[in-house]
Write a structure and sequence with these properties.
6-stranded mixed β-sheet, about 15% strand, alpha/beta
Length: about 270
């Protein structure tokens, strides 16, 4: 098995591929939302750029924000489960919805706002399906309060890869995002679906560009610097705790157990 150096779930690659290949993005969004492709008459990317000042910032959000037939649609990849993703996606929905109101418009003019999240972790452990769709419904009657709220989650770990069909476009698209090896991509490619072959070629082309490689290098450096800064902060904190424990008369052995510092480091803190 040949591991992919960069996967479709890598946020930088995701944004570069689909903002450079709008036809593919339009098809992906139509598939994720269950729309007929030819029913989309208006399709506009609202944030196609990746500002250079954010290239080295691993915390910048590389979503794709769109207008689709008058709807506000935001598509995002999330690799890691940081424990607050439902709240995070709700926050992004609220921000997109609240900023859509133009001067002179009324609240009824606000557009339907949809957040689509493709996640590489399990969110709903009590549900075996890979797609969940949320709306604002009354708890007992299930009456819809408004049709302007919609959150979609696609959980990649739940997607089976052993029964791909060329007619199931949703599973094919998600299989691309789940692919981890060259062999995974080849399995999809060999189905002979033009759109999937085009997406794989676009992925390989963008991943080979100097622009992408430079952005990826800055991204990795930011990740390294952040990890280094975190380690140093923890070390400083441990040293302060050790000094306080020593000042209270605790033994070197106890301070070592409490802080994780070495015996030599703790001994050197004694005045």
């Amino acid at each position: 098995m040949t591991e992919l150096e960069y996967k479709f779930t890598y946020d930088l690659l995701f944004k570069m591929v689909f903002t450079k290949h709008v036809k593919l993005l339009k098809s992906l969004v139509a598939t994720l939302l269950g729309l007929a492709l030819d029913s989309i008459e208006l399709f506009q990317i609202r944030n196609p750029e990746i500002p250079p000042e954010t290239w080295g910032d691993k915390f910048c959000r590389l979503d794709i924000n769109m207008i689709v037939n008058g709807l506000r649609v935001d598509l995002e990849i999330q690799i890691n489960d940081e424990g607050d993703f439902p709240e995070r996606s709700l926050y992004y929905w609220a921000r997109e919805y609240s900023t859509a109101l133009q001067e002179g418009e009324t609240y009824s003019d606000l557009p339907k706002t949809i957040i689509i999240s493709i996640v590489n972790f399990t969110m709903f452990k009590d549900y075996s399906g890979f797609h969940s769709e949320f709306h604002a419904l009354e708890a007992t009657r299930h009456t819809q309060l408004t049709d302007k709220f919609c959150l979609h989650y696609f959980e990649l770990p739940k997607l089976p890869l052993d029964a791909l069909s060329k007619t199931d476009r949703l599973r094919l698209w998600l299989a691309l995002f789940k692919a981890k090896t060259e062999e995974d991509l080849k399995q999809i490619e060999e189905l002979g679906v033009d759109e999937m072959q085009e997406a794989i070629q676009a992925y390989k082309t963008v991943a080979a560009t100097s622009e992408f490689k430079e952005v990826a290098r800055l991204r990795e450096r930011a990740r390294f610097n952040e990890a280094s800064a975190l380690r140093n902060a923890r070390k400083r904190n441990s040293i302060e705790i050790a000094k306080n424990l020593l000042a209270d008369g605790d033994s070197i052995e106890k301070v070592v157990r409490m802080t994780g510092l070495s015996k030599k480091e703790v001994a050197g803190l004694r005045g």
